[in-house]
């Protein structure tokens, strides 16, 4: 009997879902693994969705402008914090039939459709590789731009051309002193022709941020691999042998320009694009005395690192407004054309008196590396209104007109039925049964045995924060000895390291160099004046990367780091 009741409840619940809303169309995103693409290079078109589409895709429209080489489908699912998600992806490898800007057409998945995307197909550009076209295996590298500005992004691209099978390959990473070097997303594979000869190409991209102006040289990369040789052709390739081969790339010299003299900002910041914005947790024109409202400031920069982004909420406010800033959120996203950096600051504001208050404008001067111009990203002055405390309100406040709501509020997608829409008794019964089913499911999920969670000791966490605050002050004061003491305390708590050299070995390349530079300044006889700005920027960036979730490297075998 109980089984029948449960079955009835589940059936009614799903019937309610089906009758209460229409079939949800799947959003299908379209992207390419590279853009622009040479006419002789193959590339991949990716169709991605988080919902099962109406039917299998029909890729026939692609054949008008592209030759389809192969296609495959993959899917993944995850369950995080009680929420399930899935991703379905179709990958289509193609060759363009002509040059120019080609629009990848809308692809039908039954009733669902993908989004049209444009891709630029360029004429053949294998002139740099033509000198090596008589070789079975060679490397080609390039850096863009060749004359970057200080701390601006340089895109360094490595291409491995091969027409033989290789195994146990080891590849060095680019090395450049006084620079931040980061590998970008996964390697890409494609086929191309060099002087009429077919090659398989593995492409790997890095970003380099030079921290010193002048001419600097990126050392050649070195690939060591076992080349498979068919030594016994009479046995149909059953017996193969290998020989070790080593190839190197050319070195590249960058002419790094200093910051323009016209830049008068206190914080030098370069980017390809930059945006700053604010959001509020409620209506900042109807604040109440003693009640907090959260202001969120967000800075997004393309072609920059998180360590280069300045503070946003450092400006002082009126004495009648108490502010409580939270720890900033720092994120970095690696894309095929560089880094995307984000800094988010949340400040809780509590007014102590009614009235109007003006928050000063937030101005971020920055250098646009695309236009070569100095620009300023601005959040204008914001006036907030405090109308009274919650205790003083005896009657409900009149409904706020829609136009006066803060821009961060949004209209609910699903709205409750109005009084003019009568609800039948059967629908009420269905709703109650559905509610009972949800309560049962919630009880089941919340009463499962909890998985063991590893936590950090609170005292140690507080100690690390104290060390970070001490280091920040020491760097702001350009006090090398105080910075050393703060680093030693931080390194002892974090890595159980007792010297600056040991701490440097536990950090990323940029922070390691800055710590070693501090060490030299402390013990040099005629040491120059020390500036702590670079050290603390590198420290913030190092901590931000340490907090990022580890991402498995699905780069193509058999390329490995030495």
Description:
The protein has helices spanning 2-20, 127-130, 425-446, 458-476, 480-495, 500-505, 509-523, 533-547; strands spanning 28-32, 37-38, 43-49, 66-80, 83-96, 100-104, 108-109, 112-113, 117-122, 137-144, 154-162, 166-171, 179-183, 188-194, 197-210, 214-218, 222-229, 241-248, 252-256, 270-271, 273-280, 287-289, 293-302, 321-325, 329-335, 338-351, 355-359, 362-368, 373-379, 382-389. It has 562 residues and is α+β, with helices and mostly antiparallel strands. Strands 10, 11, 13, 14 and 15 form a 5-stranded antiparallel beta sheet that branches. It folds into 4 domains: 23-122, Immunoglobulin-like, CATH 2.60.40; 127-256, Immunoglobulin-like (Sandwich), CATH 2.60.40; 270-391, Immunoglobulin-like (Sandwich), CATH 2.60.40; 464-545, no CATH class. The chain is globular. Residues 12-22, 391-424, 449-456 and 551-558 have low confidence and may be disordered. Helix 7 runs antiparallel to helix 8 (533-547). The longest helix has 22 residues, at 425-446.
